[in-house]
């Protein structure tokens, strides 16, 4: 089966590092036209230049997913530059995990703003475009933390399971021409631990990453697998774990 990725216009949030960066590079290498979204302008501009230098097509859009206007600009840029948007990969996320007793309410609010509202803003901006086109694909990055709830991760898991529920409702409402995929990574070598404000929780996550974490390219390949399926085939949910992860 030949890949159905070449020529597709794919916007990716959280594209400046980790899973987002790996996905951007993989899809661009397969011929997709990629729209890079992240807050760090220097990182995404350098990545876009790297892709262009290799003969690919890429544009960088500074984006804070907590701001709906930024998601609107992201989608508009894709349409202005390439005439359409085929896939929105909502990958941006943070994980300032901690025990509930610590009452890190600002961290809770930040996770809701980025992990849940950021995805909803993407849906709000891309769904009308997909309806108008008669095709489109939402890909939402979740986490295995939402499949196995453990101490310190309850709020983070809650945000991921909120998006899981939203994604399933979206899938059921999407009709015959739109697709919705959720991807739940296990331990993956990313910068996600950098958002953890609790030093003990951060140390535990970094230790797990050092011991068993997968490269982000493993998740990028899973995302590419879902995107490359022919029209009418919807890969609903993918779970990717290190073999050593319980």
Automatic annotation (TrEMBL):
UniProt entry keywords in alphabetical sequence: Oxidoreductase
GO molecular function annotation: oxidoreductase activity, acting on the CH-OH group of donors, NAD or NADP as acceptor
InterPro entries: NAD(P)-bd_dom_sf, Sc_DH/Rdtase_CS, SDR_fam
Similarity comment text for this entry: Belongs to the short-chain dehydrogenases/reductases (SDR) family.
Protein's name according to its UniProt entry: Oxidoreductase
Naturally occurring in which organism (per UniProt): Streptomyces violaceusniger
């Amino acid at each position: 089966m030949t890949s159905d990725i070449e020529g597709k216009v794919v916007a990716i949030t959280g594209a400046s590092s980790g899973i987002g960066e790996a996905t951007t590079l993989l899809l661009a290498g397969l011929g997709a036209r990629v729209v890079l979204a992240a807050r760090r302008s220097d990182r995404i501009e350098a990545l876009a230049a790297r892709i262009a230098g290799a003969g690919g097509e890429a544009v960088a859009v500074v984006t804070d997913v907590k701001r709906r206007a930024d998601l609107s600009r992201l989608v508009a840029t894709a349409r202005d530059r390439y005439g359409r948007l085929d896939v929105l990969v909502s990958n941006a996320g943070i994980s300032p995990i901690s025990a509930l007793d610590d009452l890190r309410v600002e961290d809770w609010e930040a996770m809701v703003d980025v992990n849940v509202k950021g995805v909803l803003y993407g849906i709000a901006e891309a769904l009308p475009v997909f309806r108008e086109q008669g095709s489109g694909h939402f890909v939402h990055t979740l986490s295995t933390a939402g499949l196995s709830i453990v101490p310190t991760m309850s709020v983070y898991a809650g945000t991921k399971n909120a998006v899981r529920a939203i994604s399933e409702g979206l899938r059921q409402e999407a009709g015959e021409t739109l697709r919705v995929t959720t991807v739940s990574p296990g331990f993956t070598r990313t910068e996600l631990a950098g958002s953890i404000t609790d030093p003990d929780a951060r140390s535990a996550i970094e230790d797990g990453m050092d011991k068993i974490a997968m490269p982000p390219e493993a998740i990028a390949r899973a995302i590419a697998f879902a995107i490359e399926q022919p029209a009418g085939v919807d890969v609903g949910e993918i779970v990717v774990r290190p073999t050593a992860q319980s």
